[in-house]
Amino acid sequence: xxxxxxKNAQIVNEGTIINGDxxxxxxxxxxxxxxxxxxxxxxxxxxxxxxxxxxGMIDDQVxxxxxxxxxxxxxxxxxxxxxxxxxxxxxxxxxxxxQATTIDLLExxxxxxxxxSWVNYSFMFGGTNDNLDEILKVDPSKVAGLKLFLGxxxxxxxxxxxxxxxxIFSKTDLLISxxxxxxxxxxxxxxxxxxxxxxxxxxxxxxLIRSEEACYISSSKAIELAKKxxxxxxxxxxxxxxxxxxxxxxxxxxxxxxxxxVCVHHLWFTDQDYATKGTKIKWNPAVKTxxxxxxxxxxxxxxxxxxxxxxxxxxxxxEKNNNYTKAxxxxxxxxxALAALFEMHHKGFxxxxxxxxxxxxxxxxxxQIKDRGYIKRGYKADVVLVNPFAPWTxxxxxxxxxxxxxxxxxxxxxxxxxxTIVNGVLVYENGKFPNKSVxxxxxxxx
Length: 446
Description:
InterPro entries: Amidohydro-rel, DHOase/Allantoinase_Hydrolase, Dihydroorotase_CS, Metal-dep_hydrolase_composite, Metal_Hydrolase. The chain is of the alpha/beta class.
């Protein structure tokens, strides 16, 4: 039996912090108490020395680029970086090459993850204008949900046929996650700036092209359709204060039919950062104003926004260093998301308890993930130790992403992840990877 005893931790769970010990046996949490004695000579003892012990982050939106785009990233490299960043489970998006828009192609991705991932995994099935028959074959107990691009799609994944969209919303039992930006508005805005600047549009215009109005039009339409059809809708990566008013905190999360996510970069950066970061912070939806950032924080803390994710989407530096019209949107974040969130905790934005709620408890509730997201007896042992006072600076030498860069390069964080345990296996310890876990396909109580 594999046994790990974590002693002297500040255990963060369900809105409380208690000092104590946690015993892990095989892949489960066996005991939580003020003091637990060593069970056998082969028990690995980790002295937390007052560090926070938190449930591993469940990242509900990543792009790990495999298959087909592995010059940027792959499941092995990015899940290893995720483990170093305290993420123990991820949900990956369908816009790979080929796109995961059939059951067979989806299962090919699951097969890759089974062999190469460092952490637990699931994948979104991709919706198109013409694959409803395939959507209806998906087993909701084995797949995280359905991803619909209502803007900013790749390939043929833009679902822009209103009749098709209503049919999908009406017929699927899957949780629908949507990227909401109105393509018509974006194209109109883009034409204005192309006429003025040609190919050399300043990056500062990005949030004016992919504007507040583009986001709001699309989000409000999706919500209206969800209310009309009774569909279960989760809106990804809110970026505007205006959109936050579309969501409610009047019901507990487990009873909500319409939910929302915010990503780390929209909580950290503003449009003032384009001057120094350039296309490295070009995301879709765009990083917008300080007013938007403040509004996102307010909605996150009052529970109109339910979860925090990364939207990890790496590209090579060569790709990102193109001019505005050619530089792809997205950036790598899984290694640095928790460190950034703890930095925001130090600055007074969020409590550790709320941070854990939004990164672990709520993703588990929202997606109905079985036996994960909490530090509870009998639950899977996916836990992370965070030293709140161990400063480190992000640089080329310690970046683990295959793309080799980070929008946080040069940033010094006060806190660091010291240990990551996945299914009871210590996979990350103080900069090293002592063991490879046996990651599991997430299952869902549906």
